[in-house]
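Hello Y.,

Per our agreement to keep a running log of every chain we model this quarter, I'm adding this entry. I've kept the format consistent with earlier entries: sequence first, then predicted structure.
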Amino acid sequence: MTIRPFYEPRMLEMRLEEYANIAIDGGLWLVGEVLAQRPSMSDDFVPDPRYLYKPRDLDAAIIELRASNEDLRHRIFIAGFLRLPDNGAQATFRRLLVKHAEMLHEALRFEWTRRCDKTIGGRKPSGKLVRVDLYEKLRATTAGKELAIEVKK
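Predicted structure for the entry above:
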């Protein structure tokens, strides 16, 4: 005899823009950690969760992401969302990637543009661009799980 639970655990639905905002925050955190740990980076990269809500090297991370192409930027955002501490939304986010990838990418595009305009005031960032092969470093650290998600169309 199977005993049914008292309740069904459910993820409350969020607007697509909220998922995009969380993914952008996660991506900024990941890139900030890559930039902060670069001099001491070994093969094992573990982002420091202490800086999750206040990413290190935020301006440099924004500059790096602005200089990246859109596909790489979206892959970093997706990896950032999936590397966040478990918040119950990862499964829903993965389903969004599979079933509504184009809508999610459009939301990421819109929210990133809005965030850049708000953060940098619409002007080109000044300062020297630090080129880091973000995709390769993040791919190596995530063992390709998050960044190699096959999106079914």
